[in-house]
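Need fresh eyes. Consider my entry:
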Amino acid sequence: MQNGNPAARLLDLLLEAQAIDRSVTTRIAWAQILNTGNNAPLLYERLSKVMTLSDEAYSLVIELFPRQERAAAYWKSSVDTAFTVQNLNGQFDSFMVKISNTTIDYLTAAADLLDTKRPEKLSTNEISDFISALNELIEEVISGDFEAKVKEYVTRSIRKIVIALDEYRLGGTIPVTDSIEKMLGHSFFDSDYRSALYETDTGSRILNTLGGLADAITVATPIAPYLLSETVKKMLGAF
């Protein structure tokens, strides 16, 4: 299943990395790039997702543009080596020394090529707006009158969508659409949950927000309509 433009996502991260002082500790540099603060488990989790981007991007590039295999192999080898030799407790230069200008140039070309086939992405402002709206809905649900079990499932499900959006630059569209699918799919198995979503003002606001998010993803990533089931599209009134 295609998932937007992983080369562009990887490139964005590396360009941000280039702007960081190479003398800082590698762990601190990645925490800044990945917005993990002092949360070490979250840092390792997100860093592992960054490390998978080169494989995802390389596979897609050579599938769609086989004549780019040599250039793709060059930047993939550079990125993979950088992750292998970096010292998280040493200077960030231990990573960046392997990311040459040629690596960036070849990866930029790959990102531009993929963009003709797999355009993306949600803008930073769009992501921020949706995260804010979803967090407000979480607060509304918590302070509302839903049954305890419904309240727990709704808030947990919305938080998963927030996390997927917060990590959009790492995971792309699929984690977002998967989270929406799971949240709405639960309504088929729980009548109280279904009533909360479809028969309350709060539920209506949740569905409207998710529908807006689904529409935004469709514009940013045309493959998105194929990632949501027909049933969920109808539930959201999207596409």
